[in-house]
Amino acid sequence: MSMTSTDDEIATEQDTITAIYKRFDALREKADHRFSSAIQPTQVSTPGGKLERNIRAQHFSERAAQLSAAEHGLVIGRLDLDHDEHFYIGRTGLYSEDYDPLLIDWRAPAATPFYRATPMERLGVRRRRHIHLKGRRVVRLDDDILAIDELDDDERQHLTGEAALLSSLQSARTGRMADIVATIQAEQDRIIRSELDGILVVEGGPGTGKTVVALHRAAYLLYTHRDQLAKSGVLVVGPNATFLRYIDQVLPGLGETDVVLASMGDLYPGVETSRTDAPFAAAVKGSLRMADVLEQAVTRHERIPPGSLKVTTDRDTYLLDEETCQRILDETRERAERTRQPHNRMRQFVAKKVLNELVRQEYERLDSVLDGIDIPLEADDEEDRDLGELIDQNALYREFRTSPSVREALDILWPELTPQRVLTDLYTDPDFRAAVTPQLSQAERDALHRADATAWTISDVPLLDELATLVGELDATINRAERRRRQAEAARSQHIEEQRQLVHDAYDVAMDMAIDEEVTMPVDASLVLERYHDVDDRGFLAERARQDREWEYGHVIVDEAQELSPMAWRLLVRRCPSRSMTAVGDIAQTGAPDSPGSWSEVLDPVAPGQWRRGQLTVNYRTTEQIMNVAADVLAASGADAVAPRSVRPDGEKPWAWQVTDDELADALPGLVREERVHLETGTMAVLAPRSRIDSVLASVRHACPEATTGDDENVLDAPVAVLTPAQAKGLEFDGTIVVAPDEIVAGSSRGYSDLYVALTRPTRRLGVVATGPLPDGLAHLR
């Protein structure tokens, strides 16, 4: 296509894009106006009127938010079909004032050919056009001609949309993940649209788009299975907070907001931590053996005191001998196992058994007292009187129940526990730790010791969550929750008939909104009623789910899944008992010292027979020149893995620079300046071992004062980020300098994996600064 014809095509598309944005602005303004009107104070007093007001306010608020989120890159592309039909694909669906479709939502079935059509299977597509926008201006068009007769054998082997992929990757990164819906490969698309049930493992090496697949799958599932997921949402778990900041705008940009983004350190309410344990301690805590250790730790608190347990009240002193205490504990444990009740829930059962025993002993005492008193009987009393007629049994139970001594006895036999208390005892009390860890070696027990037990680490979060399941809520919390449950049930019963009547009003409102808002998806009346009735008393789904440890998500997506320990997987299964998950990762990139050798080793313990695998084989992020270096390191590591094929052969040659330790501080600023000149506006990272982060940052700041580290929440907005390989996982930069690769390799038993991760972060330029000998795989790099 000539320059003139290209300009003409861009101008033609610009006219269409301008018209689409004009309609977009009108719809957003209408939603904003209607939201403002809906929240104005009114004199509405009928239940139906209040319901309609709440529904409309919430709907228009969400609609305005969805439109705002979709504004950037609103139009993705265009499909030209056989028989001269065409339509546009975008981040949300729009209709004209005459209800003609202006934009097809990218997740709608009609948009499927935009991702799946190939020269071998055209799906009725004649041409696929990728439309690149800068703001609201068309800056470039990329066309894929899919008429098979026009392609030779070599062209048939090319990736669908490869030209658009490669050109998009030549543009500089902005610090946030490029939203590349328009360039999703057919290989990725099949995974994105895979069925909801079971665990789908998405395996792929660096640069294969695993994260893009995961995030777009979340949006697609929320769209396709809305009825199933609208009430439960989707949890996306990333490797660290920096990564979550990197992708936190992608899902809202696709129009989906019922998503919780979290790292493992955030998944226990009340604890937010980025602290890490030493590798050996983390491996011990992550081991599946800890499930038995924690169960034993809880049981260890259920104890029988030596000798008899003395209970003193205003009435008398009572003794609970060892046999009685053992019987109470045995009966309680048997019942707990049968009913699957946690420890704290069974305290009431223990209390009942103790009170029964005390009442029995009090009856015996009173009976003995009465036997020693000469009480004249009436003529018609031939037998002793029943003590039950002489004693108010309920009053006796109340008296014992409120006795401090009885409470002390309960605290000895069956104390109320919190996850924090049990884990603190395990970490700080060596005798307690030895008693509950017979399956651990002494070195493993010592690794669990920590003086400040409450300085929680990421590895502690799955243990706290496991303990929360074992111990349950405290009595006071249980009682409050039970009262709330009963009150809610009473309110529900009281208003059930009213709600049946209101559903008719909700239906009318839903239909009005579906028509007025020109949305591509009709609003279901029953969903509107259930979701928005008394909406002012409810928070948004993501906020509520984040604070509720027992929230059950409809789907969980895990990025860098190879890094999760067996105990972390147990936590995720509790968050999603249906085991509807997407696990994204690469076994070759794991940095954990106890890393699994296969996905079956990871998933069979938690989901036997319930997982399947999808593979991404093509690296479209990293240049061939960089990937060749990384592949040599992967081979040197001895890993049973093959680096993915890169489709970017036009990259720049990686370089290496040898300096001494003393020379590093002076050499690094100049190298950083030189790289920034080559990268122009692109992003850059300097990756180093953790032990060198502070000194490397100080040196880099001589060249770039705005440089910062992964501890800074704004690190992704900095022109140069100084990170460890672990902090850089899942991120990408235009250029990367790797410092002291030999120390990265020596830093852990998985050091070569860490180096492999570091080498595969850049998309354009890679440099290595060595202070020691280059590791195997890098020796030829000069």
Automatic annotation (TrEMBL):
MF (Gene Ontology): 3'-5' DNA helicase activity; ATP binding; DNA binding; hydrolase activity
Keyword Ubl conjugation: no
Keywords: ATP-binding, Coiled coil, Helicase, Hydrolase, Nucleotide-binding
Signal peptide annotation: none
InterPro entries listed in its UniProt record: DNA_helicase_UvrD/REP, P-loop_NTPase, UvrD-like_ATP-bd
GO cellular component: cytosol
Taxonomic lineage of the native organism: Bacteria, Bacillati, Actinomycetota, Actinomycetes, Jiangellales
Protein name: Helicase
Coiled-coil spans in chain: 464-498
GO annotation terms (biological process): recombinational repair
Entry binding sites for ATP: G204, G205, P206, G207, T208, G209, K210, T211
SUPFAM superfamilies with a match to the protein in the record: P-loop containing nucleoside triphosphate hydrolases
Domain UvrD-like helicase ATP-binding: 183-623
Provenance organism: Phytoactinopolyspora halophila
